[in-house]
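Exam revision sheet. Question 4 asks you to relate a sequence to its structure. Input first:
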Amino acid sequence: MMKKTILLCSSFLVLNADAQYAHEITDYVPPTDKKVLKKLEDWQDLKFGLLMHWGTYSQWGIVESWSICPEDHDFNPRRMGSNPNDYFTYKKEYENLKLSFNPVGFTPEKWAAAAKNAGMKYMVFTTKHHDGFCMYDSKYTDYKITSKEIPFSVNPKANITKEIFNAFRAEGLWAGAYFSKPDWHSEYYWDPKFPPLDRNVNYDPEMYPEKWEKFVQFTHNQMMELMTDYGKVDILWLDGGWVSKKDPTSFAESYPPKLKGVKSGFIKSRDVNQDIRMDELAAKAREKQPGLIVVDRAVLGPNQNYLTPENTVPETQLPYPWESCIIAGGGWSWEPNAKFMSSKKAIHMLIDIVSKGGNLLYNIAPGPDGTWPEAAYTLLDEMGKWIDVNGEAIYSTRAIAPFKTENICLTQNKTTKAVYAIYLDQSDETAVGDKLTAKLPASFTVKGIFAAKDAKVSLLGSPEVLEWKNTTHGIEVLIPEKIRKSLPCDLAWALKISAVQSKQ
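Answer key, structure tokens:
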């Protein structure tokens, strides 16, 4: 993951000038496997999931493993270690973080219970980030949590990925495996014969095909471990989109944008054809995990079953399956004294995303001791209280135009076709006294939506049937004073309209 923002349009995504940073692409190639299509449909019902970035880098409180990438970006500064200005010293000290990694507070059951109570339905965990450190017992590397050099290796819960998968599945959540395609520790990706140049392989795969094939096999072997030895896996969430098959003729088009405004000719990262035979890998993975959703991020083609806008929310509905992966507090990985977003912002963001047909994948980063910040539990608890009342307006819904008007978001149950108009509280969070009290108006109009003749309208969490009328602009709903004085929840309120018509 990276701290980059992109611009989003109604039917496609506009990439950053450097496409290497993009985790979203234009166009969408739907899968053809019927089991995958069914699984993808079910995934779109889930709406709310958890992402966790965790590794040895958490001990330094830095942006995952990006600081060992020899690219000069503001998101990967080197400030830790004895000599951060010496790359090779820094990298060695970074890799030695494993020697002190001992997250004795690791209690995945507590995380899983909190996620379930918050209304989360699936989880994606970083089994391996770009640094190559495996948070599972891989047979193909010693750079892993279960290595005898690691203090935590003697802990009964040393195979962290297995423990997390089991804990979350026990709570009824789907299990997803984040896996980095690049591996900056592997000698078959960053050959020690050559210094690393950027995020890419540091040798020419065409010049050294046997070496590249060893990396391909290494990658396949590690991914298949996860597909074989870790129970039911629902999502294979692949990061590092620059590791992909590229048409050599495309390079002539890819480099001019990189050189725009660069007088010296220096570019931060190259484009390299890095074919790991994803079609073959996806097929093998689905032999072990039928219906597996594969998310080959930022790679156009049939192996990106849904798209993943990163730390941003589209302006409007997108015409394909998608999720916004959003930082809950701090960074993608653990930071000391991380400030978490308010429950109001989080709930409104969830509603906004769902109204546009997407899912929210909410990132919470465990700390070096294996615990979550208490603020994370507080936030999830508050989100859960809201979802307990309004979950009907969230789960198993689809987008319906006009999606959002002013402070009202729309969703529609995919089966019953009931429409939910979710009124977002507009009160000032910084206000005090009476001004802080959230209120629904005595009446408001849901623009662009017209109720059917015999429709019933109600407020989720309240048993009363509400009065309504269609106007030239939409359905106007009356909220009785007794309901307004005793609202079933805070921050946002969902009206249920049992049936709608296309126009007045």
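Marking note for examiners. Residues 209-229 form the longest helix (21 residues).
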